[in-house]
Amino acid sequence: MSITDQVVDLMPTLLEQTGVMMWIVALSLIFGGIAGTIVGTALYVTRRGGIMQQPVVFWVLSVIVNTFRPVPFIIFIAAVQPLAREVVGSGIGNDAVVFGISIAATFGIARLVEQNLMSVDPGVIEAARAMGAGPWRIIRTVILPEALGPLILGYTFAIISLIDMSAVAGIIGGEGLGNYAVAYGYRQFDPVVTWSALVIIVIVVQLIQAFGNILARKILRR
Q1: pLDDT greater than 80 at residue 14
Q2: How far apart are CA 154 and CA 40, in angstroms?
Q3: CA distance to 13, 41, 108, 118, per residue, from 190 (Å)
């Protein structure tokens, strides 16, 4: 059988696993993105000089983020299995994978959000405060909208990182294109499976990055 015929035969499975991968990434981005945005925004506003300056709160949040963010994901996802059993009812499978990736993404996205919010012109914030706007209103109507372009680029980077994390899903029984490439390509010495999966992942990443760049560019031009 030629390589082309092998790829054609593999395509239904490859597309199915691509869909599973994107489902895992999408759910993880929703949960981890929301939590990460909240934590990152809290880090920004509670730091010294922030509109809700609380050095103790900032220090606690910073220590938590710095503790978990550097942990290699392959170790992290195995370590959170007991917690996953309590929350989603199982320590293995796609639900446990989404749970683990969501937590890991929270810490990474929190730093991305904090760093991108730092790009907001302090003068704009001071102008809003001078007009009598409260901290919560400034966050909603000034800080987040002003940083939206850089935030989109940050979230684009986060999505690509989540695709990378999903490849480790097999360690706890998860599915997805990355795990399929490892389980049925690398471990079974089938380079056609490995390279077919790799090409699809590269295409998906390129499309996501291009879309993120275009969207961010449009917002930054406003």
Answers
A1: yes
A2: 12
A3: 15, 46, 34, 47
Helices 191-220 and 3-46 sit at what angle, rounded to 10 degrees?
40
Per-residue pLDDT band for 174 (boundaries 50, 70, 90) equals: confident
pLDDT tens digits, 124-165: 898 888 888 888 999 999 999 999 999 999 999 999 999 999
pLDDT score for 222? 62
CB neighbours of 105 closer than 8 A, spacing ≥ 6? 28, 29, 31, 32, 33, 36, 158, 161, 162, 165
Cα torsion through 34, 36, 41, 47, rounded to 10: 160
The pTM score is 0.91
Cβ–Cβ < 8 Å for 144, 41: yes
Q: What are phi and psi of 52, to 5 degrees?
A: -130, 50
pLDDT mean across residues, the chain: 90
- CATH assignment of 3-220, given 3.90.1720.10, 2.30.40.10, 3.20.20.70, 1.10.3720.10? 1.10.3720.10
221 backbone φψ class: left, alpha, beta (φ>0; ψ -120 to 50): alpha
